[in-house]
Amino acid sequence: MAIRRKRSFSDLIDEYFKDLEEWTQEFGEPFAERPSWNLKNRSIEPLRETTINPTEVLITLDLPFTDKSTVKVKPVGKSTLEISAKMNRVIKSDDLGVTHWRGEFQKYHSHMRIPVQVNMDKMKVHYKKGLLEIHLPRKH
Amino acid sequence: MIEEVKIVERNKVPSGATLIFGFPDVGLVGVIAASHLIDELNLSEVAYVDSELLPPLIVLHEGLPHSSIRILGDDKLVLAISEAPIPADVVYPVMNALIEWARSKNVKMMISLGGIPMQDRQDATELKAFAAASTPEALKIAQDKNVETLTEGYMIGPQAIMLQRAANAGTPALALLAQCFPNYPDPEAAAEVLKGLEKITGLKVNVAKLLEKGEEIRLRARDVMKRTQEEMSKTKKGQELDIPIYVS
Question: Could you report the predicted ipTM of this complex, rounded to two decimals?
């Protein structure tokens, strides 16, 4: 018989917020606004833009303080991308002019759903001056 | 009738100054450029906008409350800046009040700093600034200084209302717009628009520091950019990319 580890209340709360975060990232902003950063993961959600063209989906992300070598674009299934990039310096809350909480950020993280069918195998990625471009040919 | 939008003066406002606007819009070009001007010229707050039409929002600086729309200045120049996007349905009353106030201060010229969305901006090695004006005379000032004219097209947002109201009153006004990323903060475009401002007004501003701090500005301006995108979508800002119908 499999032994199920008893989960603490805080584990359940963490799990709830993780599910909520994934849900909101996938479907928009259903309940409440959330910050564009996550202190626990030391990550910042980058600004991004998706353009659906007749032949391809173009996604761009603004990733200041990053180097090309640390950028990772990982397809998750047929319609989701997970993008991360390490910053080339640690950004402290003070650097952002925040004084009422303390923390630091070391990476960008973005989890996004592609709104139309695409061919993930033919994905092309370009990076220039901190701007990431992802080209995904559409499936017809 | 109660005034919907009040301009409250904190300090003496010079008469006959140039009024510059830096409001959140594409690439946050105007706000970034205006913030740099405030730092470089050491401008201090002279007035602010007070209105219950605005969201219940204040900006805290050193623990003290400030209106999100403030006017800073010195003896020759006044500058209106907004640290939060102006809600689409409030743009008219806010701009009307600011322009009325500017006329009461005998402002000699109004210049709105901003951006113009550019396709494939990431591949551009050189950016251009364009000008549109409220009067033929104001347009000639920009043309004489070799600033290209934004000849045809649509303009949406605070700068559009500024040009229209200034044209109605016969007041000289310019919208100075640099090519930019529409949805990402663009310090390089802000530097370009400040170079255009220097050509037109002779106001020398060192943009080297602005360019050096480019990545930091892009990171810090992220949240304001995101809120601005939301507000711009309400005003159908994308219409600025439309090809205009030809009406002579």
Answer: 0.88
